[in-house]
Design a protein that fits this description.
heterodimer, A: mainly alpha, 13 helices, B: MetI-like fold, elongated
Chain lengths: 325, 294
């Protein structure tokens, strides 16, 4: 199941970047290049070979873990991607964590009292959250908290230029700074994290609220809960039962949500110049850096597969009966 | 064809139900309709509302704040932002409506055929759709538009194409449930050709769920097309498209000229919000599961 998907992904991205209208040779050679220089660059990149040969060469390299070199930075794509993955994961982790921490309780509360004022207000707020462009929200936050109030640092990177970053342990400047007891670095990393994480949390909370509410409503209408209610259990116990029974679909939803949020996160990284994988991917696509695009897309596919796997494992742990099939 | 005749009697009743359903729209969905109509008027008759030409620049009025002359101020090229925001509504609708129509025209036949035929074709299509879901839609749209050409027409085609699996899936699921029902079997027995069964018997009974999605998918198309323009792919500044305008204003946000990016962003939010409100209301009416939960 996973293997054909990955082969398909490699094949499609390979064809897409080559058959499409992007021409890296023109971008690399510049406007003053002569015809000989063009053919030289073309040969250098292996683009003079027939397509099927190019694909076999590329496929062979990918199997060996070699994603090629970025044509723009001349650095191995794999190296670029691994270092930047940690940078992005930090943002994604805090963002989706905060989004779930807001979204799940709010959605549950809305479901416990459907169509009351709290439900209606959160419903409109969550629809608004669906409608706000992430990048615009980031820009507005920069304007308010950096330009007007001066509370936040400018949206450039993960840590102040005046502070030396901590040693690499987990890849998160905040956690690494805390481990090292480098309070200055940890503080700077924290202040740089707040705005992008807030942005991501707001955008990710909206669908989580909506879905949690729908799931919990379905559970409330189920026979289990009706029976429990008929038994005269306390409202607190009932809510615990509802929560327990909605846990599996909610976790599955948050898992699928994470893959979708990678796109949102890329835009946030772009606005805050975060320097993570998302920004790298966007730049590669816009500039026509074939090898980097291929590596990036493959990484996204692997990441999604990994997330689905983790979700399956978590679900199997909290709900053993799902292991039956 | 007696079976199909008896079935056709259900047409008017369904239509009547649908119309009655629309009058049951909740107040929030009605608010969504009002917002969409307002933007529709702006898009169709933008010439009446614009105070200046949206693409002519006033070199001596660069980056001026909102004033009586320029209600939303001027941008870095000295163009009137109010007129540009109004004109931008044309792009919002001009991209979303054809994109959704394309998605429906591709997705529904594919869903019908895949669900009805089943087998290897269905299996392969579903695998491809599953594969597409691995990627965030914005990355997918960005990559495909960047690779296949950055014209406005291409943006519309790519968005419509990438959105078609949504409709195909919904229709396919419905077809699977109805495939072996009595009215289909009797239509086959009466000797109807396959295309007739698909488009005259199955289609009317299966598109309701897909149609409920159109407003939400239009909201998606508006959002994604603006995002592409914000990233500098597809529509380029100084075209008065909202995403491209936000891109122009991004650098001024940290130097204090907020009006360049804020106003197109607000317009974008309102249109997407209106479409989402309407979509949410339609889903409430048409989705039996959500209706039961109310």
């Amino acid at each position: 199941m996973v293997l054909p998907l990955l082969i398909g992904v490699v094949f499609v991205t390979f064809m897409l970047v080559r058959v499409g209208g992007l021409d890296p040779v023109g971008l690399l050679a510049g406007p003053t290049a002569t015809a000989e220089e063009f053919t030289m660059i073309r040969k250098d990149l292996g683009l003079d070979q027939p397509l099927w040969k190019q694909f076999l060469i590329y496929g062979g390299q990918v199997i060996q873990g070699d994603l090629g070199e970025s044509w723009l930075s001349n650095r191995p794509v794999l190296e670029d991607i691994t270092t930047r993955s940690f940078i992005s994961l930090e943002l994604l982790f805090w963002g989706i964590g905060l989004g779930a921490a807001i979204g799940i309780p709010v959605g549950l509360r809305a479901a416990f009292k459907p169509n009351r004022r709290f439900d209606q207000v959160t419903r409109i707020i969550s629809l608004l959250g669906f409608s706000i462009p992430t990048y615009w929200l980031g820009l507005v936050m920069l304007f308010v908290f950096f330009y007007l109030l001066g509370w936040a640092p400018p949206g450039m990177g993960r840590i102040s230029l005046m502070v030396s970053p901590p040693e690499f342990v987990t890849g998160s400047y905040l956690i690494d700074g805390l481990i090292e007891a480098n309070w200055e670095a940890a503080h700077s990393a924290l202040t740089h994290l707040i705005l992008p994480v807030l942005c991501l949390a707001i955008v990710s909370a909206a669908p989580i609220i909506k879905q949690t509410r729908a799931i919990a409503l379905e559970v409330i209408a189920s026979d289990t809960v009706r029976y429990a209610r008929a038994c005269g259990l306390k409202i607190k116990t009932l809510r615990a039962i509802v929560f327990r029974n909605s846990a599996t679909p909610i976790i599955t939803f948050v898992g699928t949500e994470i893959t979708g949020l990678v796109g949102t996160m890329s835009l946030i990284e772009y606005v805050f110049a975060w320097g993570g994988l998302g920004q790298y991917g966007l730049n590669a696509i816009v500039r026509g850096d074939f090898t980097a695009v291929q590596g990036y897309v493959l990484t996204l596919a692997l990441f999604s597969v990994l997330i689905f796997l983790i979700v399956d494992i978590v679900v199997a742990i909290i709900e053993p009966r799902s292991q039956l099939n | 064809m007696p079976p199909s005749v008896t079935h056709q009697f259900t047409w008017p009743r369904r239509t009547a139900n649908r119309v009655r359903g629309l009058s049951r729209l909740s107040p929030t969905a009605a608010a969504g309709v009002v917002i969409i109509v307002c933007f529709g008027v702006l898009a169709l008759f933008s010439e009446w509302f614009m105070t200046h030409d949206p693409v002519s620049s006033y070199p001596n009025r660069i980056l001026q704040g909102p004033s009586f002359e320029h209600w939303f101020g001027t941008d870095g090229n000295g163009m009137d932002i109010f007129s540009r925001v109004i004109y931008g509504a044309k792009f919002g609708f001009g991209i979303a409506i054809p994109a959704v129509i394309i998605a429906v025209l591709i997705g529904i036949p594919v869903g019908l055929i895949a669900g009805y035929r089943g087998g290897a074709l269905d299996e392969i299509l579903m695998r491809i759709f599953d594969g597409l879901r691995v990627f965030p839609s914005i990355i997918l749209a960005l990559a495909v538009v960047a690779a296949t050409g950055q014209s406005l027409l291409n943006v519309v085609l790519v968005l419509g194409f990438l959105d078609s699996p949504v409709f195909a899936r919904l229709v396919r699921a419905e077809v699977l449930a109805l495939r072996s029902s009595n009215f289909v079997e009797s239509a086959i027995a009466a000797g109807n050709p396959t295309w007739r069964i698909l488009f005259f018997h199955l289609l009317p009974n299966t598109i309701q769920g897909a149609m409920a999605q159109t407003a939400v998918r239009a909201a998606w198309a508006v959002r994604i097309s603006a995002t592409l323009a914000f990233l500098g792919i597809g529509i380029q500044a100084p075209t008065p498209e909202w995403g491209a305008m936000i891109r122009q204003g991004a650098e001024f946000m940290v130097t204090g000229q907020w009006w360049v990016a804020i106003f197109p962003g607000i317009a974008l939010i309102f249109l997407v919000f209106g479409l989402n409100l309407l979509g949410d209301g339609i889903q409430d009416i048409l989705d039996p599961r959500r209706r039961a939960s109310k």
